[in-house]
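Q: I'm writing up a methods section and want to include an example of the input and output format. Could you take the sequence below and give the corresponding predicted structure tokens, formatted cleanly so I can copy it straight into the document?
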Amino acid sequence: MRMPKAIALLVCTVAVATTATACSGATTSRSSGKGTGPAYRVTPTSPPAKGRLDSFTWSLYAEPYTLDYALAYDYPPNTVLANVCEQLLRVTPDMKIEPGLAVKYGQPNPKTLVYTLRSGVKFHDGTTMTADDVVASLKRHMNPATGSPWASAFKNVDTIKKTGPLEVTIRLSNPDILFNELMAASPGTVESAAFLAKAGKDYGGPKGKVDCTGPYALAGWAQGDSITLKKHAAYWDTSLAAKTDKVTFTFIEDPAARSNAFLSGTADGGYMVPSSSLAQLRSSGKGTVLFGPNTAVADLAVLDFKGTLGDLKVRRALSMALDRKNIIKAAAGGIGIPAKAPAARGAWALAPEKTAGYFDALPEPVYDLAAAKKLVAEAGAKSRKVTIATSSLAPEISVVANAVQAAGRQIGLDVRLKAVSPDAYSSIFVDPNARRGLDLVITNGYDNTPDPLEFYQYLRTGDFGNYGHWSDAAYDAAFDRANAEPDPAARADLTAELQRIAMDQLPIIPLYEAPFSVFLGNRITGAPTGIAQLYYPWAATIGAAKP
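A: Here is the clean output for your methods example:
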């Protein structure tokens, strides 16, 4: 569930690149002992590159379903596109929002945003970016024919107009702080308007191309095998000029096979290391496993509020029946902590001074089988069916699904597993028809930006990411108040109310937090370690580990 923006399909642990001191919990370096699992250190980046490379190979856990920026709503496509396409703003590895293709923006009033574009930016075909490209790129999300999962980000947009050769003005129907922040993610991506006009239905697919402005250009896509990027020599940001000429992405769905690729050197590196292989890879001598700061939580998203889990007592009972510490051992290699809320502590990076009051003070999740069993009985839900999706997409999914089934049966629920293919599992997050017959799905909820409000917008009535169609009028009103507040600290105060309602009503059941992981073989270094890799041109920073 790519919750902040997305809600993406789950797979491993996701992280946001913040400084290690900006987060605690799962994103703080930990020593071993006291039942906390293996020791690990959290850093926002790997050691800098010491030289250039002709090429390196990067492993993805699945083939991207698209490279169309308007449809990219998951790790594989965004991990590739981060190096090819760029946004008006940019999220940096230290989790700041800075100028990107827009050199600056202004807000003359709460309902107007004016973006001044960077001059001299070249698309991969050599043409120069103008305001026309920005208008066409952003408007495409709003066209129902596009089918963009990011369309809800534009819900308050009235007009997007060119107001100068290098100026775009956006007028809103209501104040919308998140809209501007999301100009640093997929909604703010800029593609060539001329290329979009001629690309047709093959745009962003294996038979098509993309024409953006990033440090790498798409060189080829051999469907089922690999995607190749080549260095863009005319890239505008000399500080991020690519240190490697060619990057090849390979797709390996089987976790064991993916780990073997790391060990054999067939793949030089990859994000989201299979948790079942963490210990082996860390001790292999073939490379380094690094852990990055996190804004993600492994959650259980309720998909059907008309079924057994429509009763709040049953949702609370299931939450109380989950042995999160043992789930962490089995699903995350012992690296992680029980989650206190559906959005991680690291998601509060925009106003870290508020975190102690609004996150650290939350109670630890309760594990109490007797009390949970009593709640099920009070709800009259004994022996009622609950169906959870499971998949071979990642070992974590089946581990958590089995744990949920065991916990549910211990308290009197008839929890059943529905096995689906990796592709079908992914469809749960974009296709309402794929959710039929399911009560629960395992997700990773994370922020694309450093604002915790981004996560909680996906529980608003009617939002694309609100998979179970949960609705709460007080929640919606609280969200609107928060999204109209420009001051980050004051907005954090308002976001805390959303967190309180979510924990009281449990439309999402939090499981655990864990740091993001990346494997770097011995010949490469320089990669950011956190979720900035979804929108920051991470491949450009990778080079030789030795001079």
